[in-house]
Amino acid sequence: MVKRLLTSVKVILIGALLALTLTGCGGEAAENSYPLESITQNGQQQSKVYRAENKTVPQVAEELRQQEEPKEISKTDTERMFLVYPDKWYHLQKDPKKPEDTLIEISNNEFVRQNYSPSFLEGYILASVLGNLFDSHKRYDGKYRGYTERDIYKPKTTYHTPTAQEKKVTPPITTQGSGSIIKRSDRPSSTSNSGNTSVGTNESTTKKGKIVKSSDEGALYNQRKEVKPSSSDFSRPQSNSPPRVSSGGSGKITKRR
């Protein structure tokens, strides 16, 4: 009895492991991976750069936004965009050496605070968000403007190609979906004009009309004759028998009351 029970448990565990393996394989096929390309770290400052091949800055921004909604996002731009989260900043930049690709620079708050220029970020991010990051009582002399301009506006730390160990510790970014942008104008309207029937794709909300051919007019007329009014203002005659004629010879017709 015990042996049979152990065999059943083994079969169940093997089946569960196979199901998890298959699910994982299916997920890999549906994900887009952005490999780690460059990294820098100095004390509490950390920044990592990933590459999104053959994708524009707005496309990558929309993919990342759908995966995790930022608390602040800059206006749509084909050259540069920012996505701000509570503990990290995404700086998306078109690669000048390979314009069809987008570089994704992910920096923690300390790196942004120590390297970026607040005056530069004011052109993309609300002042209230910058005020929470940069202490107005302190002076910040960073001139950094992103990874693509690191040779001109140098950060206080140096980027390097990640080692095998660093790649192992920092896996690629994976995002669900194809990353296609859905414009607001392409989304179905949730409201309709008064008096009009809303249009939907659900078959239960679609009404179909019927065309009556001329040969069916007689049948349609007979159907109309059988329709009885539902209003209480109409009353049915008391009798349909012919009027009574008196036998006095006067020929006067007396209607039954």
From TrEMBL:
Keyword field: Signal
Keyword Cell membrane belongs to the record: no
Key word Signal present: yes
Sequence ranges of Low complexity compositional bias: 189-204
Source superkingdom: Bacteria
Biased composition (Polar residues): 229-244
Region annotation (Disordered) ranges: 155-257
Leader sequence residues: 1-29
A matching Pfam family: DUF4247
Protein name: Uncharacterized protein
